[in-house]
Amino acid sequence: MSTYTENLRTVTTQRLIEMKQRGEKISMLTAYDFSMATIIDQAGMDVILVGDSAANVMAGHTTTLPVTLDQMIWYAKAVRKAVKRALVVVDLPFGSYQGNSKEAVCSAIRIMKETGADAVKMEGGKEIKESVERILSTGIPIMGHLGLTPQSINKFGSYAVRAKEETEARKLVEDAHLLEDLGCFGIVLEKIPAQLGKQVAEESAIPIIGIGAGPYVDGQVLVMHDMLGINKEFSPRFLRRYADLHDVIQNAVEHYIQDVKSNDFPNEKESY
Ligand code: KIV
Question: How far apart (Å, rounded) are the C-alpha atoms in residues 125 and 163?
Answer without folding.
Answer: 14
